[in-house]
């Protein structure tokens, strides 16, 4: 449910993709000054040439005085810079520098590992996380089943973009520009199963409709791949969470496929930045 501002001056800035998913509980903990500062940063992030103070005031629909005070603090802390003539404001490189003090992939892996470990313990299956990298899928994290019986893909392995569950999830949950770039950069890996453009388009349409992928593995007999996207704020897949499910046929009774799928769904939701968007 989209939250509306409690400020008498109305709306948040017109920033494409801005998150408006605050719940009623979240509203109790609003920090108006912090919100204003973040709104300015998000607004300037969409304006590579910067904006004048008057333009920022118009976009923010707030008083010139409160915007001026906030801008001066952001300039003083070096998150925003003024141009030489002093009439336009733009983002500095400070946010970029802060982000690279803790690489995003490392941060994602650190957040994912305990969630993946909990999944493996409940599901008695292995799981791995894949990210797009230079035309294919890089397995960036992997957890084995604690039971000792599982099928796993080694961390650091590169697997096909067009014939794996992880690849199809990444392609299904991306914007058109990213899709074209990924397809242009793709080079087949060893053993990759070819697929026609028509078949790929149909497969991705089905994945988007279901919100996840579940199918027999294209690489190994007896394995059912279950894969969910880890979604970013714009509903694009930051990564994929995949379980290569194998069913034991001895006397041990482990969780059935449907329950494992539910556990994987919960794990993907816990890691996604758009909570509740993964079906």
Task: Please describe the structure with a list of short key phrases separated by commas or semicolons.
transcription regulation; Transcriptional regulator, IclR family; 8 strands; six-stranded antiparallel beta sheet; 279 residues; 2 domains; alpha+beta; disordered C terminus; Beta-Lactamase; HTH_MetabolicPath_Reg; disordered N terminus; Arc Repressor Mutant, subunit A; DNA-binding transcription factor activity
What does this entry look like structurally?
- By secondary structure, the protein is an alpha+beta fold.
- It has 2 domains: 24-98, Arc Repressor Mutant, subunit A (Orthogonal Bundle); 102-271, Beta-Lactamase, CATH 3.30.450.
- It is 41% helix and 16% strand.
- The protein has helices at 24-27, 32-45, 53-60, 64-76, 94-101, 104-123, 165-172, 176-185, 197-210, 257-271; strands at 80-82, 89-91, 127-133, 136-143, 158-159, 213-216, 224-231, 237-245.
- Helix 2 (32-45) crosses helix 4, helix 3 crosses helix 4 and helix 6 (104-123) runs antiparallel to helix 10.
- The longest helix is centred in the middle third of the chain and has 20 residues, at 104-123.
- It is elongated.
- The two termini are 16 Å apart.
């Amino acid at each position: 449910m989209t939250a509306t501002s409690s400020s008498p001056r109305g709306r948040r800035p017109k920033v494409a993709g801005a998150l408006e998913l605050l719940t009623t509980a979240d509203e109790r903990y609003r920090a108006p000054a912090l919100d204003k500062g973040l709104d300015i940063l998000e607004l300037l992030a969409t304006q590579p040439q910067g904006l004048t103070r008057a333009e920022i005031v118009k976009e923010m629909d707030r008083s010139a005085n409160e915007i001026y005070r906030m801008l001066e603090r952001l300039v003083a802390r070096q998150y925003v810079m003024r141009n030489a003539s002093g009439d336009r404001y733009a983002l500095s490189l400070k946010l970029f520098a802060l982000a690279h003090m803790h690489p995003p992939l490392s941060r994602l892996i650190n957040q994912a590992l305990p969630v993946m470990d909990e999944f493996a313990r409940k599901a008695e299956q292995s799981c791995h996380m894949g990210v797009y990298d230079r035309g294919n899928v890089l397995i960036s994290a992997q957890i084995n089943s604690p039971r000792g019986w599982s099928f796993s893909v080694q961390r650091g392995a590169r697997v096909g973009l067009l014939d794996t569950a992880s690849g199809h999830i990444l392609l299904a949950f991306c914007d058109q520009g990213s899709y074209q770039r990924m397809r242009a950069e793709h080079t087949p890996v060893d053993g990759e199963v070819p697929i026609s453009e028509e078949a790929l388009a149909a497969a991705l349409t089905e994945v988007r409709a279901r919100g996840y992928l579940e199918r027999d593995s294209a690489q190994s007999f007896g394995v059912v791949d279950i894969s969910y996207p880890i979604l970013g704020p714009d509903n694009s897949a930051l990564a994929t969470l995949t379980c290569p499910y194998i069913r034991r046929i001895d006397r041990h009774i482990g969780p059935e496929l449907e329950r494992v799928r539910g556990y994987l769904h919960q794990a993907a939701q816990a890691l996604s930045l758009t909570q509740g968007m993964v079906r």
